[in-house]
Amino acid sequence: MAQVTAHDALTYSLKRDQAQFAEEAERLAKQAAYIAANPPTAGRAASGDLTRLIQEAAFLLKRAVTIEAGLEAVGLMGAEAATTEQ
């Protein structure tokens, strides 16, 4: 039976996070397009839509930072494994 390493587990988790990031970014783009197509008028305020867009963008930014840190960690784990195998 193959042993799962921290590198393997983190790589798997990153792939899931990247897929979720892509879905969330697509949703965010659709929200932005909706806002652009429906500007504020006398009967419609856009502030609520913009507030939700900003909140979701902040969550997307948090996910991006987490993914980037994970990718860096995977790279460091790979470099460490390469030096210990020599």
Name some characteristics of this structure:
mainly alpha, 2 helices, 86 residues
In short:
The protein has 86 residues and is mostly helical. It is built from two helices and no strands.
Could you describe the 3D structure shown?
- With 86 residues, this protein is mainly α.
- It has one domain.
- Helix content is 83%, strand content 0%.
- The two termini are 25 Å apart.
> What is the global morphology?
rod-shaped
N-to-C series of helices and strands: HH
Percent helix, as a range, is over 70%
Coarse structural class: mainly alpha
For the sheet with most strands, the description reads: none
Write the layout of secondary structure elements.
Blueprint: H1 6-37, H2 47-85
